[in-house]
Amino acid sequence: MAGIIDFVGNTPQVEIKRLNPNPNVKIYAKLEGTNPGGSVKDRAALNMIQSALERGDIKKGIPLIEATSGNTGIALAMMARLYDLEIELVMPSNSTKERTLTMEAYGAKVTLLEGIEACRDYADEKAASGKSFMLNQFANPDNYLAHYKTTAPEIWKDTDGKITHFVSSMGTTGTIMGCSKYFKEQNSDITIVGCQPTEDSSIPGIRRWPEAYLPKIFDPSRVDRIMDISEQDAVATTRELARTEAIFAGMSSGGAASAAIRLAHELESGVIVFIVCDRGDRYLSSELFG
Q: From the record, what ranges are coiled-coil (predicted)?
């Protein structure tokens, strides 16, 4: 009989029709919220834990620790429970209550600090002391390799190899790094588009990292174009996705959708695929759908 792990991946890919401004362009949304933990991060969490266990990196009695803005934490809490591992998750204090409660429901310890940079520093210090083991999603190749092995091949198959543009929000950059590596091996002409917030915007799940905190797995040569997304556009498009396309997602997904729609305006023809990172029910206590 299949277990939870067997249902990570193979997520639906649906066509965006009502919000697509160009009849000569196809826009598809990859619905990662259908993963059992509710987000794209299930893939990375599974691959990071399984790979670390296979290498013997995780020692008995040493708890895991990870800094996260939310979705990775939920995925790691779920996977840690399946592998009987203790875990502490360090999150920004402005994270939605739904995320904190979900992690705690899986049995994780949650520590809230001011800002993701402070969370990363705290996790780094605790891991350096030897009291905890950090998977370090920001520097761990197993993060992006999860998408190289699963997400990108699924998209390639579902578009019959006709994808011309791939759009992804950039947080840890694992999704865009892994997918870019795979797509460029299949067809170097595929355009990889990353989304980051404008200077004055705050979009959960998308970051404009200071140089000192730029994820070590990020390779700028793998991204052909970066599109700046305003908080206002991300919010508006997230709401439009729900009310027009019946896709209930978080703000980072709205940011990626906004970029995909903007891109469709520019193209004569093409096949665009963007990542819908998670589900909207993680944001109901915020003002996203208010």
A: none
